[in-house]
């Protein structure tokens, strides 16, 4: 069963950073770009847990979803400090909407990235997504949030290795990821036939 993703809309007025267009971001000098990424990271790392803070963080994630569908932006962000922060927040966030949307940003990043540096913590993201799927195996709604991101990351690694761009050891894929994926596929087939 494929869950249709709802199109994301962010509110530029409620964003705590300027809602730069893709064109504006791509034309930025390195220092301005780095400042922008730093501000996004510090907003994501904010530990406030009130409703306003949650809404604000979700709005920021919706904005990121609109940015990372552009290849150049995805390439720059997956190699920036944003990617490790997304992984850390995926692990730490108490709010499941935030977790689901972080997974969505990660999945979109992986889907639209064409250049990947060796130090990008892809293995760490795969391990965490695998754990989250395993822990929430009976919750099909949550599973459907995390599975696309896991699949996109695995595909990204496979395509890079196929092109011989990086050695296999660069991004080790835990065997648990394949086990969980196969189990999800088997269960999915059973549910579909049932």
From TrEMBL:
Protein name: ULK4 kinase
Entry-linked PANTHER family: SER/THR PROTEIN KINASE ULK4, SERINE_THREONINE-PROTEIN KINASE ULK4
Keyword Plastid applies: no
Keyword tRNA processing applies: no
InterPro entries for the chain: ARM-like, ARM-type_fold, ULK4
Taxonomic path: Eukaryota, Metazoa, Chordata, Craniata, Vertebrata
GO MF, one example: kinase activity
Organism encoding this protein: Prunella himalayana
Domain of life (superkingdom): Eukaryota
Keyword terms of this UniProt record: Kinase, Transferase
């Amino acid at each position: 069963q494929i869950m249709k993703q709802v199109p994301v809309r962010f509110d530029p007025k409620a964003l705590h950073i300027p809602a730069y267009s893709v064109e504006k971001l791509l034309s930025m000098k390195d220092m301005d770009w780095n400042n922008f990424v730093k501000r996004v990271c510090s907003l994501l790392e904010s530990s406030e847990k009130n409703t306003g803070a949650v809404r604000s963080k979700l709005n920021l994630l919706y904005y990121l979803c609109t940015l990372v569908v552009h290849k150049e932006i995805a390439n720059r962000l997956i190699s920036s400090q944003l990617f490790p922060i997304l992984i850390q927040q995926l692990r730490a966030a108490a709010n499941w909407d935030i977790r689901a949307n972080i997974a969505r940003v990660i999945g979109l990043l992986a889907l639209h990235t064409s250049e990947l540096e060796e130090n990008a913590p892809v293995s760490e993201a795969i391990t965490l997504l695998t754990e989250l799927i395993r822990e929430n195996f009976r919750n099909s709604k949550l599973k459907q949030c995390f599975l696309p991101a896991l699949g996109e990351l695995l595909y990204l690694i496979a395509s890079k290795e196929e092109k011989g761009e990086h050695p296999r050891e660069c991004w080790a894929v835990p065997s648990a990821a394949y086990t969980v994926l196969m189990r999800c596929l088997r269960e999915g087939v059973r549910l579909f036939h049932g």
